[in-house]
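thread: overnight batch results

M.L. [08:02]
morning all. the overnight job finished for the chain we discussed friday. pasting input first so we're all looking at the same thing
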Amino acid sequence: MSIKFLIVDDSVTMRRIVINSLRNLGYDNFVEAGDGKEALDKLQVDHTIDFVITDWNMPNFSGLELVKSIRSNDSLSKLLILMVTTRGVKEDIIEALNAKVNNYIVKPFTPQILKEKIEQIINAA
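M.L. [08:03]
and the structure it wrote out:
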């Protein structure tokens, strides 16, 4: 099964790290966005995206705002979402889970952690 990922992070370096990790895991289909607004625009025109990996802290439109927008949109609400962020305090994790992210990774992370979280999300879907 080919999965198309949308990688959302205001840091080009972090997007590269995630994409390189995905490539090493055998995934090769992704698009990128620099913030939540750009991500939402891409999701509304590209209906082949299956899985969103998003940062939380971004200018213009945060990852949390993006998650809430996706979940409140009937045509996007079933997308798989992994939040990857430096925000590791319990309250933030609870807030993200309440917004209905499928899973959560705190930076820095290893490719192995990314692989495990992606597999958990896909297997639960």
